[in-house]
Amino acid sequence: MAWNPKTIVVGIDGSEQSAHAAQTAADLARKNGSLLHIVTVVRPPEGWWGIVGSPPPADVLTSSMSEAQQSILDGTVAQLDLDGVEWEAAEEIGEPASALGDVCRERGADLLVVGRRGAGLVERLVMGSVADRVAHYAPCPVLIVP
Ligand SMILES: Nc1ncnc2c1ncn2[C@@H]1O[C@H](COP(=O)(O)OP(=O)(O)OP(=O)(O)O)[C@@H](O)[C@H]1O
Ligand SMILES: [Mg+2]
User: Fold this and answer.
1) Which of 114, 124, 120, 103 is nearest to 20 (CA)?
2) What dotted CATH number matches 14-46+53-145?
């Protein structure tokens, strides 16, 4: 039986690479009549959990980060060609790779699409850590877009 992805999840982080991955996902969704979930994950700063009583308050920090991430999501979505695609955008909080995996599991995704690199500032020889981790641990097939 032919593989026909009904549900596709794409992760975006504001980078050009993730926008490119999202366009690839949108084109695949259009061709296959799939539902596209465009997901951005807010990652709380390292050590954020477990800090007790230290400023800034966690909820304030998270809400301002969450607003920043929301504008990333809106900005990327605005530049995509989503004509003829059924899509939804969502924001999650957590560690990006595991949060993307959770979304795939919850939505019963048939495919997860990510860029090979993202918004990270460190120039690596290999792919980014989020792409690497989802390639190893995602509950569904993964498409990594260079
Ligand atoms: N916070 C996030 N929310 C949703 N998708 C993400 C997020 N971070 C990364 N991705 C997805 O993973 C792809 C690869 O990004 P990744 O973070 O692995 O590379 P990097 O930023 O270059 O490296 P690193 O983050 O390890 O320094 C992105 O193009 C995007 O598709
Ligand atoms: Mg990154």
Assistant:
1) 114
2) 3.40.50.620
